[in-house]
């Protein structure tokens, strides 16, 4: 699970973004200003920092400069200051992206993942017991043998991986895999694909330990 430090002094934005990014499978810690940010960075090796320019103490430009001098941690500015000077200044300091507020949450997630891939911070190999998923090569293996997942099975597995440890409703799963690979996906189709995925991943598909059913709520990737 990639770790993100959110440096932002607007508590409403912190609360909303933390909740949203957590549902997308990220671990999020927040800091309101420069002092808290530096303390957090000393304690944890974050994969990415989401950084506002205006902070309750110090400023985002100083934080970005310090980060880039010490490490290769990715930095994305999130700022209402969308003028050309601010954007150029941020990028010149080494920021990996600059996103103007207000922004669409799903666009933010897409750009976060793009930066993580570009900086080599995205996890490309994930182990689930005897199953190994290589997201860079786009394959899943069990005990070294390719599981030969279909496009929709693989997409469904990626959804679970991106929300590891989080209970996903059937509606959320349908939203994520809708019409992938040109196939019509309805509730019955989802049931079929979850069964197929379990048959390939689990030691005992009747008693799954990787993709568990959460009665009345949905499914959760456990490992």
How would you classify the quaternary structure? single chain
How many structural domains in the coordinates? 2
Radius of gyration: 20 Å
Q: In CATH terms, what is the architecture of the largest domain?
A: 3-Layer(aba) Sandwich
CATH superfamily of the largest domain: Response regulator
Question: How does the major sheet shape up?
Answer: 5 strands, parallel
Relevant terms:
single chain; 223 residues; alpha/beta; Rossmann fold; Arc Repressor Mutant, subunit A; 2 domains; five-stranded parallel β-sheet; four-stranded antiparallel β-sheet; 8 helices; elongated
Structure description:
The structure is a single chain. The protein has two domains: 3-118, Rossmann fold (3-Layer(aba) Sandwich); 125-221, Arc Repressor Mutant, subunit A. 41% of the residues lie in helices and 21% in strands. The protein contains eight helices and eleven strands. The chain has helices spanning 11-23, 34-43, 60-70, 84-92, 105-118, 151-162, 170-177, 187-201, and strands at residues 3-7, 27-31, 48-51, 74-79, 97-100, 125-128, 131-134, 139-142, 145-146, 211-214, 218-221. Helix 2 (34-43) runs parallel beside helix 3 (60-70) and helix 6 (151-162) packs across helix 8 (187-201).
């Amino acid at each position: 699970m990639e770790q993100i430090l959110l440096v932002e002094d607007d508590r409403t934005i912190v609360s909303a973004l933390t909740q949203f990014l957590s549902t997308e499978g990220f671990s999020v810690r927040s800091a309101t200003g420069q002092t808290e940010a530096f303390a957090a960075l000393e304690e944890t090796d974050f994969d990415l920092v989401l950084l506002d320019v205006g902070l309750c103490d110090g400023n985002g430009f100083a934080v970005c400069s310090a980060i880039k001098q010490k490490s290769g941690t990715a930095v994305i500015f999130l700022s209402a200051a969308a003028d050309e000077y601010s954007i150029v200044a941020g990028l010149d300091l080494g920021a990996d992206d600059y996103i103007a507020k207000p922004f669409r949450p799903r666009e933010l997630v897409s750009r976060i993942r793009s930066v993580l891939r570009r900086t080599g911070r995205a996890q490309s190999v994930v182990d689930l017991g005897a199953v190994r998923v290589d997201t860079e090569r786009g394959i899943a293996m069990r005990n070294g043998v390719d599981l030969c997942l279909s496009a929709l099975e693989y997409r469904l597995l990626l959804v679970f991986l991106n929300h590891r440890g989080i209970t996903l409703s059937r509606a959320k799963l349908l939203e994520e895999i809708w019409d992938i690979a040109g196939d019509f996906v309805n509730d019955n189709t989802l049931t079929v694909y979850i069964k197929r995925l379990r048959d390939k991943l689990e030691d005992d598909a009747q008693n799954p330990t990787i993709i568990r059913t959460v009665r009345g709520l949905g499914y959760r990737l456990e490992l």
